[in-house]
Amino acid sequence: MTDNHLARNSCNLLLNMKHLYTTLCLAALAIVNCQAQLKPEYQNAGKTTASAVFNVTANPDIPSSITFAGEKVDFDRLDMAERIDRELTSIIYGQTGTLLCFKRANRYFPVLAKILKEQSVPLDFLYLACTESTMDTYAYSPAHAAGLWQLLAATARQYGLEVTDEVDERYDPERSTVAACKYLKAAYNKYGHWPTAAASYNAGMGKISGELSRQGANSSFDLYLVSETSRYVFRIMAYKMIFENPKRYGYRLRTKQLYQPVNYKIVEVNSSVASWVSWAKQQGITYAQLRDANPWIRATKLTNNSGKTYRVRIPVSSDLYRSKRKFTAYSKAWVVD
């Protein structure tokens, strides 16, 4: 290589180093400016906020115990601590899904909580729905489970839901919640232990009962199970911990960022509907708005030869526009404003 080539390469190296130095300085300045522009609650919220804003990896703290559905769950045992740590870490750093779950929960928790109270099921089972679907009413799994509670068709029918090509009540937030409550109460009556009832929601009562007998255990916490079921109840408890104290785990939301509950008027339909598209227009809404309000509708028509009465929700117009509605938060702990 000639001296000219060496000189040219040296110059290029110096220029590249200069460009790199400039880029690093600009990046540092951008971070400082960003931090300076944050609201006070973001600036002073501590290490967990740094995790949320700048993606700094901070491991969640593991409590010595929590109460779930009225039962004390102790995390002193090594395997118990590691299992809750795994689920907390997984949910916290799966930020997209968790943030969406918060936003959707603000819309559906008020309705679901009311039903759980009426059905005498602990409110902590709201977090089972979070675990099942991240509160997505349209959720559908590879195993063909559907809706907020991810019910299989056979289980749904067993607990009183209609599942056909035209109507699938697994997608109805209210009716599917009642069905899930019936299952959970049946499981609790069998085991006398809500966490074990929760485990059976994932694996089935037959599987849990068989393993309790085979392994000589009294609760699902002491069972050797497939990974999905072994993790399941800990994931529910992790959602409970995060939702009860989101700021501790780095989540900062404002009320207007949460998906808002929608008020509806109810129209009873007890005959066939030739076209839901035309029917929706007669109600002053679009077909898309009708489907969003009634995800149990699965086709553009309703045959209804039996004359069954369906309660169809029509959203109140003012609730469909951000400029016309009031914004609320289900829990004050969820928001910073």
Notes on the protein architecture:
The chain is mainly alpha-helical. About 50% of the residues lie in helices and about 5% in strands. The chain has 13 helices and 4 strands. The longest helix is centred in the N-terminal third of the chain and has 35 residues, at about 5-35. The radius of gyration is 26 Å and the shape is globular. The model is unreliable at about 1-10 and about 25-55 (pLDDT under 50).
In whole angstroms, the N-to-C terminal distance is: 66 Å
What is the ordering of alpha helices and beta strands? HHHEEHHHHHHHHEHHE
Instruction: Label the CATH architecture of the largest domain.
Output: Orthogonal Bundle
Instruction: Assign an overall shape.
Output: globular
List low-confidence stretches. Answer: 1-11, 26-54
The level 1 CATH classification of the largest domain is Mainly Alpha
What is the average per-residue confidence, as pLDDT, rounded to a whole number? 88
- Strand order, main sheet: write it out: 1-2
Strand runs, count: 4
How is this fold's topology laid out?
Layout: H1 3-37, H2 40-43, H3 47-54, E1 65-68, E2 71-74, H4 78-93, H5 95-118, H6 126-133, H7 153-158, H8 173-191, H9 194-203, H10 205-215, H11 227-244, E3 264-269, H12 276-282, H13 287-293, E4 310-315
Antiparallel strand pairs: 1-2, 3-4
What keywords describe this structure?
single chain; 337 residues; mainly alpha; Lysozyme; 3 domains; two-stranded antiparallel sheet
Could you give a short description of this structure?
With 337 residues, the chain is mostly helical. It is built from 13 helices and 4 strands.
